[in-house]
Design brief:
The protein is mostly helical. The chain has six helices and two strands. A hairpin with a 2-residue loop joins strand 1 and strand 2.
Length: about 140
Amino acid sequence: MWLIIFAAQATRELATGGPASPLTVAVSYIILLLLLAIIFLAYPGFRVIFHNHFETSHRFLGWTATALVWVQVISLINDYRSPTKSLGQAVVRAAPFWLALILTVSIILPWLRLRKVPVQSVVLSKHAVRMYFDYGTLTGN
């Protein structure tokens, strides 16, 4: 909801000569469209029938939306920065930059820690599968 409200406010600012740039507004609407596509493609009926398409679209649309959030954040910081500050100074002092950084690290971190392990599956019925994972030797903290 906040992105819808933001896009509406940025559009209003653009129309009335405010600081929001056409790039910020356009990227905001593209992000909204990508998020709506992700929601639509996650519909259970579609997800069950076209699971591989769901996985692929979710992954690539999500990464594209994340990249566009970076474009949006930098554009927005540029729109509102003081003429006396460089873009670099404005970026490192802006909370949206640090939030986007945390968002991106939070998305990347599980992928960096992912391990491939052998899996054995036993079909118990039409609706149940028992999975055996060989994690090898685990050392805890």
